Amino acid sequence: MHIAHLQQEIVQVFGHPVPSFSDCTRLAEAIFEKTGLKVSVNTLRRFFNLIAAKYPPSYNTLTILAKACGYQSYSEFVQLWEGKVTRPGSEDAGLLKYMVSLFQQVPVANIYDETFNHIVHLTIMYLRSNEDIVDGFQKKIARTKNGQGV
User: Fold this and answer.
1) Of the residues 18, 27, 52, 92, which has the fewest C-beta atoms closer than 10 A?
2) Are 104 and 98 in contact (CB under 8 A)?
3) What pTM was estimated for this model as a whole?
4) Is residue 123 part of a domain?
């Protein structure tokens, strides 16, 4: 399982570690606000090893947590981490052009802009499993205002 990766992802997406009961409470509320799905505070405490767990988290729990990080399911999250996402071939040029235009065209209010940060996060996850377009993307995006920071 990729539970440790999902833990890291949650910390990254929500912007802070989860070392206490109160952090789990805030995280449960944030997950509900973002997804409309509920995860109990005790489930989160077990997930982050704050209390002992007799069993690993259920697939449903893992899917809710993956959805909170912007994935469609836990399966999608695992596929991205394992690099099992289908790699595009010659159509990379069109995809690369689209990705760069997305970064150029999306207005960014400030460095805390949630929508833009979500786009950046999903792009990074995609690039992790499609390393053959990383260099081209970085070269083109570095020349844009959004690529140089807001």
Assistant:
1) 52
2) no
3) 0.59
4) yes
